Amino acid sequence: MKALLALADGTVFEGTSFGAPGEAGGEVVFNTSLTGYQEILTDPSYCGQLVAMTYPEIGNVGINPEDVESGRPFVEGFIVKEYWERPSNWRARQTLAQYLHEHNIPGIQGIDTRALVRHIRTHGAQEALISTTDLDAKSLAAKAKALPGLIGRDLVTEVTCKTPYDWHEGAWQLESGYERPAMSKDGQPFVVAYDFGIKRNILRNLVRSRCKVRVVPAATSAADVLALKPDGIFLSNGPGDPDVGPYAGIVRDLVGKRPIFGICLGHQILGLALGGRTYKLKFGHHGGNQPVMDLTTRKVEITAQNHGFAVDVDSLKGVAQLTHVNLNDQTVEGLAHAELPLFSVQYHPEASPGPHDANYLFERFMKLMDGAR
């Protein structure tokens, strides 16, 4: 079935459909990971976006129920160079096309993804539409231009949990699947995790680090969280503009009360809570091969990233110190307070998909909590 991808600036790509028929729109971004498309599809941070994979052949490993990062895929649409219908993977339970169709997500294949990526890098991320129903290029581009952007949109409300819940699942093992470590009665730090669109592997890493974990909705008040008497507070990843909604105000009321660790959107919200500013990047960072320097050790990590906004480091001078920097464009990748027990990183140390270079940050959080107990 013929399909079109139309960008808001009038650029149109013609391909064929896989996944669900129909029409879907959002901000089009590209991901540079070579593997892990299933984890990418189910990352809630992609809510409101169409994702293009730069690796040319997608679908080879199919879909399995163990590798998801949330209860469902959150991408609005999926763009690939070549879709492979017959997976070669003993863990696969269905094809990628079946999975997208099941969740009513359109996919388009057969377009020149290199040309698309070059266009986004030159002209910036922008709104776009995938369609199998409207095949008029001008009409589709006009509709794409009318779509709302991410600036000013609170997408956290679309992905956060509705009620609190406890998480017990730990790391995955080849022989036995996900572990469920025994909970000790004494000495185990209790972490309350704000769900702005949290990935399951973050929760698994907290459990692997010996934490008891309770996940709470994004708008949970500081008073309600402090009433739980946590040893630490975690701020998760998530979609949309960090400078909307009540989240920075809530976190501001938590600063200094308990040790805090933030990742991605949680890092941006913490920056805002400390009095800083955020801004939209031209095309964001999305992929598993982003180089970051830890300025405290001078070591370079290869990191997984997925964000379209960044913290303005100059806005936090005298309040927080820069701890990590992106070596591609020198943007902020980590912050820490000089006196208070809190830190955050822009990238994803939970490594799903990899790499694993930054797993040490969960142990850093453990030490911060141990020092405050």
Can you describe this structure?
The chain has 373 residues and is an alpha/beta fold. It has two domains: 144 residues, Carbamoyl-phosphate synthase small subunit, N-terminal domain (Glucose Oxidase, domain 1, 3-Layer(bba) Sandwich), CATH 3.50.30; 217 residues, Rossmann fold, CATH 3.40.50. The protein contains ten helices and 21 strands. The strands form four sheets. It has a ten-stranded mixed β-sheet with strand order 10-14-13-15-16-21-20-19-17-18, with helices on both faces. A seven-stranded mixed β-barrel has the order 1-2-8-6-4-3-9. β1 and β2 form a beta hairpin. The longest helix has 13 residues.
List the helices and strands and how they pair.
Blueprint: E1 2-7, E2 12-19, E3 23-31, H1 37-41, E4 49-53, E5 57-58, E6 77-79, E7 82-83, H2 96-102, E8 106-109, H3 113-123, E9 126-131, H4 137-145, H5 156-159, E10 165-167, E11 172-173, E12 177-178, E13 190-195, H6 200-208, E14 212-217, H7 222-227, E15 232-235, H8 247-252, E16 260-263, H9 265-273, E17 277-294, E18 299-312, E19 320-326, E20 332-337, E21 342-345, H10 360-372
Parallel strand pairs: 3-4, 4-6, 5-7, 6-8, 13-14, 13-15, 15-16, 16-21
Antiparallel strand pairs: 1-2, 1-9, 2-8, 3-9, 10-14, 11-12, 17-18, 17-19, 19-20, 20-21
